[in-house]
Amino acid sequence: MLSRISLRRFSVLGAAKAAQKAEVDWIASKNQWSYFNDESYVKRSESLKLNKPEIRESLLSNSSESGPASIENYSQRLAYHSPVAIDETFKMAYEMLETDAGLIYKNIDRFRAKLKTATDEKEIEFLKKTIDKLLVSAEISNPEVLYNATFNPASTLDMSQPVYRQLAKEKWESYDLMITMQRLEQLHVIPDTLPTLEPKVDVKVKFPHNLEEEFSSWVTPGEILPAYAVAQPPTIQIQEFDTVESKQLYSVLIVNPDTPDLATNSFSTTLQYGLANVPLDNVDNVIDTKKLLENGDKFTFKDYVPLVPEKNAQNQRACLWVFKQNGELSIGDVARENFDIRAFVETHGLNAVGAHVWRQHFDRSVETVREQYGLGKGRVFRRVRGTKPIIE
Amino acid sequence: MSLNKVFIRQFSGSGAVLRAGYSTVQPVHHLVKVNKAALKPLYQGVLLPKDDIKSVSFKPTEISQDRVAEHYQNTLKSDLLLHNYEHGATTLKGNKKRSWGEDSPYKLYRNLKKPKGVSRPSKDVHPIRYDNVPEVESIVIQSYNKDALDESWLNISTRLQLAQITNVKPKQIYSKANILPWRVRQGKPCGGKVEITGRDMTQFISTLTELVLPRIRTFQGIKNTSGDSNGNITFGLDPEDVKGFPEIENFQELFPNLSGLQITFKTNAGTDERARTLLSSLGFPFYNP
Amino acid sequence: MFNPFRPSTISGFPSGSVVLKTFVRGKRQSTQSASTKKVVNQLSALSASRKQPKLLNLCNEDLIKHRTIVNAWKMFKRREEQRRHNQLKKQYKSIYNAMEDLKQTSPKLFELANAKEEGKRFPLEMRVPTDFPPTQPWVYNYSPKKETK
Question: Is this complex scored with an ipTM above 0.85?
Answer without folding.
Answer: no
